[in-house]
Write a structure and sequence with these properties.
The structure holds 2 protein chains of 2 kinds. Chain A is of the alpha/beta class. Chain A folds into 2 domains: about 120 residues, Rossmann fold (3-Layer(aba) Sandwich); about 150 residues, Heat Shock Protein 90. Chain A is built from 10 helices and 11 strands. In chain A, the strands form 2 sheets. Chain A has a 6-stranded antiparallel sheet, with helices on one face. Chain A has a 5-stranded parallel sheet with strand order 2-1-3-4-5, with helices on both faces. The longest helix of chain A is centred in the middle third of the chain and has 23 residues. Chain A is globular and about 60 Å long. Chain B is an alpha/beta fold. Chain B is about 45% helix and about 30% strand. Chain B has 5 helices and 5 strands; from the N terminus they run ββαβαβααβα. In chain B, strands 1-2-3-4-5 form a 5-stranded mixed sheet, sandwiched between helices. The longest helix of chain B has 16 residues. Chain B starts with a strand and ends in a 7-residue tail after the last helix. Classes of the chains: A alpha/beta, B alpha/beta. At the A-B interface, helix 5, helix 7, helix 9 and helix 10 of A face helix 2, helix 3 and helix 4 of B.
Amino acid sequence: MTTPCSSALATKTALVVSSGSDVDELLTNVLAHEGWSIQSVIDNHQALARARAEPFELIITGRKTLGAEDIELLRKIRSARSHVRLIILTDEWTNGDVISAMREGAFSYFSAPFEASDLAEMVRAAMAEPCWDDGIEVLSATPEWVTLTARCDIATANRLVQFLHGVKDPSIPEAERDHVITAFREILINAMEHGAQFDSSQHVEISFIRARRAIACRVKDPGKGFSLEELRDAAADRSPEDLFGRARARDEQGLRPGGLGILVAKKFVDELIYSEKGNEVVLVKYLDPPNRPTI
Amino acid sequence: MALQISTRESADVTILDLRGRATIGRESESLESSLRELVAAGRHKLLLNLANLTQADSSGISVIVATHVSLKRQGGDLKLLRPCGRVLEALTVCRLLGAIGSFEDEAEALASLRRRRYSATS
């Protein structure tokens, strides 16, 4: 893994690059509510100078700058302040910027349009998370194939999913992209929980592959796996009555509500393929072929 | 946004207004404990207002299903009000909307819950 975990936040000062009134107001409200003091600057040049002069636990870029410029800022700041949490906001970016942001250790990445409530929640997570910067490590990346590891905890899963929301592909309808992310999140959480019991010393390995007519995600957890029969059973389409019966049985066994993750994931992609050991799964979403001229 | 839950009463029905997301971790645990407390306190007719719930994953949905099942067993009921967006999609693909009972109009939802007479053996 990359770097050792930073310690819990001792002081609370955030540096915010201005984005404009709405976002600035939102950030001020969230940070002030949590007891943080805020310093504001108007651009990345000022942000770098200020960050070199004094330590900040959290830096949030302005959405007016390019994603690539924010990554350059991140790189320079982290060379001096290796554990700083930096959240990138941007209106203009490329998918490569999102990967670079993960590689360079951004805490999170928000590309327009984004939900204010999601940003507020990520800022709170940045403030609350004592150990974060070895959470996601990009092992290799091409435009078609990205492989990374993610630490087995919910906060890291949420950070990774937010990065995924920044990856856009104009040839994939927004709704289908959301479905893949929903399915991926279910499988990721499943892998972290059942493959590692949310043990933050463990990591899952993940690959995203973009083929011409399909998107695939592979998730491998560090656990012993499950029998294919168990996995088929968990993924089987069920009537509501059957789901209710299973919920009743879990309650009688003293188990917490659950057991729907694989089923929900299966509903949002075209295929779920498990390895023999059952600790590795590939999600596949087929994309409609492009319209071809008729002869 | 983390999950915020506020409750209000309408005769023997307790309405829970959910805001934020019901996802694995603190949020679904908070939802589960709130529902458990209400049921333990004898509130056996629950209406979950999902209009401002932006996300529910399998963990949040499982809590809703488990509470629905538990209440049915005790002669009570749980119904849904105005699910939308990603939450509506998740409930739809699991075919739970019709099975649990979902309404767009609060008055209709309340009437549906009130029609069901409480009985420990029903």
